[in-house]
Amino acid sequence: MAFRFENLEIWKLACEFCDKLHLITKRFPKSELFALTSDLNRAGISIPANIAEGAGSESANEFKRYLGIAVKSLFESVSHLFIAKKRDYIKDAEFKSLYADAELLVKKIKSFIKTLS
Questions:
Q1: 54 and which of 4, 63, 92, 111 could share a cystine (Cβ 3.0–4.6 Å)?
Q2: Has residue 1 got a pLDDT over 60?
Q3: Domain that holds residue 31
């Protein structure tokens, strides 16, 4: 039996985004391990986790609430990426690519929320 969230494109894209964040944070300085590295990974993990948790909801409104939390975690991730770029932990091209991924994911999540209304 597959879980409902496994078939959702937004969950798959969120997992890919989360993996990309994890790969870039591996290069962050050790001094950031319990700060920006941890915060960015935690926010990234929260995106697919909230989509999955919401998919198990009993109502559309509850599912939408979890999707809203996923979007907020995505915004948090983008904010962390701005900081990482400013501190020269990531290159401009990496930032732009991740930013574009985040924009697409937000659009898809918000579009999915509309289907639940």
A1: 63
A2: no
A3: 4-115
Angle between helices 92-115 and 60-86 (to 10 degrees): 170
CATH number at residue 36: 1.20.1440.60
Q: Could you tell me where the DSSP H helices lie in the chain?
A: 9-25, 36-55, 60-86, 92-115
Q: Is the dihedral of CA 97, 103, 104, 105 positive or negative?
A: positive
**Chain centroid offset of residue 60 CA:** 21
Q: What is the pLDDT of residues 7-56, one digit of tens each?
A: 999 999 999 999 999 999 999 999 999 999 999 999 999 999 999 999 99
Overall domain count for the chain: 1
